[in-house]
Queue: 4 jobs
Job 1
Amino acid sequence: MSSNGDRHFNVRATRSGKWWAITVDQLDGVFSQARRLDQVESMAREAIALALDVEPPEVGHISMEVIPPANVVDLLSTIDQAIATADEANAVVASTRREAAERLRLAGLPVRDVGHLLGLSHQRVSQILAR
């Protein structure tokens, strides 16, 4: 068989009762289960190895797709959108804060005063200005 670097398996984990049901796209009839998501890859690796008659480390690369329970899909999407929005807002805050710190320093204000105006410590202002 080809080297393990050539093999790639797509594994799908779907919640079924108290277990995650594991399927492998490329191997019909290969199934497993795990109690927790952090166990899915190793359980899938063992099932694939058994089906291919190789050792688990020889299986190759595994990509996982987790199918969450249907009643939380919308909530998870909302969380992802909120995180993206927060990340964008944080980027605006950081760049605006840096510009304000630079302008205040150019106006001759001491770092401690800049920090006071920006609600930051003078040490943090120094870090921002050093970038």
Job 2
Amino acid sequence: MKYILDTHLLIFLGTNDIEKISKKALKIYQNPVNELFISQISYWEMAIKINLGKLIIPVGLRSIMLQTHQAGIQMIPVRNEHILNYESLPRFDNHKDPFDRFIVSVTLNEKAELISSDKKFDLYKSLKRVW
């Protein structure tokens, strides 16, 4: 199965906050049969939040990137089809976060499931979220 990891999951894994991850999500992550991906936008989101002082990652973003690669999680670069798909996403008053919406676009475009604790993703009926 193909899965996209939400940014917070990437942070939990990179900072070894495993207890914050659901058993189901951890089982998916640990199963070598599953294909795991992150959107490049997640790195950008973390960089912006670190720069603004809204996110502190003691190990540093570079370390998170390296650990992600070493764990076999593949990075999906920003592509034109993701941007075009983003343009046509439904709009919801209670879900305006551009990073989350881009992750929705990538997940749908890549025909994957999203691993996230954020229930706001359930607004997108064609998106399958697991946690």
Job 3
Amino acid sequence: MRRITHALAALGLATAALTAMGTGSAGAADGSWANCPSGAVCIYPQNQNPAVSPTDVYYSYGAHNLSNQYGNHWVLNNQTGGAHAHLCRGSGGRDCVYDIPAQNGVYYDLGPINSITLDRP
């Protein structure tokens, strides 16, 4: 529960900072959010807070294995139509431990995370 509360508080602060900086937010005219294109899930560099420029952008449904991702990263789910993203400990989308609903993000330690899935609603 403490981790979720921390993540929600950090998301709120980052969203406020992004709005104040004018770098974009959910609902921008082009649908981008913190430079994460509409329909995508984005991972940002370690400890980049607020999330400004993603290093990894995923569009296709299914599992995507991660490599060399350590420490805390913003993961933003800017998919449309209610699609979810899941952070998973195993490769190939196995042992998923965190669900990110559409139009949400989380500041999460990706050290133990080996894959991310993009799932249709």
Job 4
Amino acid sequence: MSASMDRLVAGFGGGVAISGGAVAVLRPDSLRGPAMDALVRDAVFAKGADREAARQLLWELGQVTGVRPASIHDLYIARGRGECGGFTVPAMNVRMMAYDTARAVFRAANACDGAAIILEIARSEIAYTEQRPAEYVSVIIGAALREGYRHPLFIQGDHCQVNPKKYAADAEGEVGEVKKLIAEEVAAGFYNIDVDTSTLVNLDFPTLDEQQQVNYERAAEITRFIREREPEGVTVSVGAEIGEVGHKNSTVEELHAFMQGYNRTLQAMDGDLVGISKISVQTGTSHGGVVLPDGSIADVKLDIDALEALSRAAQKDYGLGGAVQHGASTLPGNAFGNFPRVETAEIHLATNFQNIVFDHPALPADFRARMYQWLDENAQGERGANDSDEQFYYKTRKKAIGPFKQELWALPEEIRQQISSDLQKTFAFLFEQLGVGGTAEVVERFIDAPAVQHGALAGIGGIAVDDPDAGE
């Protein structure tokens, strides 16, 4: 491992050194050049010791520069106390061309002095984009360092979701799989976890408490699991969900039923356990939007009044940061200014960023055609009986991201720059609409990102690394 580390450090041309068993940055500007690009590529595509050395060096560079994975918990709880507000945190799912996309995020954040931003990946996305948590964290740290972003990194496990069919067949086995993923995420540096047991809500029961019971009991159980594994000095921000996205709209009464049952269950487990910091609700959106036969997206009927009522109740009655809106990516541009106005804590954005890449005029047409051909050969089982080609490709093309990941990363720099530039414009627009500009100050005021030892390698730290191929 030491030979791999020596080679990677040498790539910075004297700008980085290992002294006394610790990484030192001698020239910060050296982190903002091609050596960082090469280091991140090694963290993703190298094998064995070379890959693990790259990931470890990225982690240590983040630690010494203050670009550390952090929890947004304290900021949300401060918001619940009324000590900050007027902005909505965008939680952005980085699926495709992850390094270039994340760099665009950080350029836009730097330009507006924003730091209340989350980068996330869902359980399902980890599979079809072929990005395990340790890789994802490395890419995000590298992108931040490359762009000179010097704030805590809020990296989130989105939709750590229980599959209802698998739960019905083997409840403990399915919850165990979710816990296994969460353990991997927290160990990698995901200090924000969205627990999604809303798939277990049963609306056939007569009372709201009965409908939400399995949801809140499992959410409390997983919360305890997270608290037992979070690093010293870190209170992982945990979110729960009361209504599955794309289904029935949530109500304030359902929020009360969930929160009262959740708090009661958590108290019975351990009176000192810290609970959730936010609550995800459903108010009319769906993941990815609803695609029409011509490939366009149907208008979304977002119930902004319900969202406001839910967010206010979460803050006033339970001290949470507020409500979280999923499936917001395909909303019209003039909708985003509503979220900070009604004190929405967080919105989740994903599909539109993917769409920008897939539909970008700079993306070679033959490359796009090869990805669609792959879908024809490998995803026909997901084609609806009445789907047009446009509907089929729109719904399934995310499944081609993983198989074509290395080719996407290897696109000519000119093409990647054009796509990244347009992504940056989109992020800048969203940050303006959501009030993210200037939030570096509020993050600095409420967030402490302690140094965390992580997967030590030869001569650095003192913790053994896991099997580098575990789970991959």
